[in-house]
Amino acid sequence: MTRALALVCTLSPSPKPSSTQLLADQIMAELSGLGVKGETVRIADHDVRPGIAQDMGDGDEWPRLRDKVLAADILLLATPIWLGHPASHCQRVLERLNADISETDDEGRQLPYGKVGMVAVVGNEDGAHKVSADVFQGLNDLGFTLAPGAVSYWVGEAMHGTDYRDLEETPDAVRSTTHQMALNAAHLARVLAESPYPPR
Q: Can you give the residue ranges of the NADPH-dependent FMN reductase-like domain (predicted)?
């Protein structure tokens, strides 16, 4: 069974409505329809400490989330855009993942080798391509593999207040992009499970 984990990096804790959560849920629903078992975690609901260690101690909840990342075949990082950048929770997740950048399996491969990375971005300002590029580079440095079209995003008109969650329906372009992204990621995860990267 292929498994996916979505880390939703909205700054809003549950149960506050979140456009980032909505897009992540739509992506996970697409993956579910492709036979992928999924779990979603909202980072703002957990005490994830700043730093680049596997465990920052004193109640840090990252070690439990790290276990979920390592158990998943697909990792979705979903983030809003703030001032043209990924949300601070998304950056924090990448920093915490960085603790494992030198960790390898028994054959010398980074631990995320064979795992597929995906990105979701929402906002009411320009910057979806810049934000996804930032996150893509981080995921790739850490050893994740990106399928073609590894991002689904929605950005409203710049300097206006419309949120993705306030739309009456999902735009066709977002729906079709989300479907294709899920299709490609699920396929790639299964290919990598059957044919892992060679040892180093």
A: 11-150
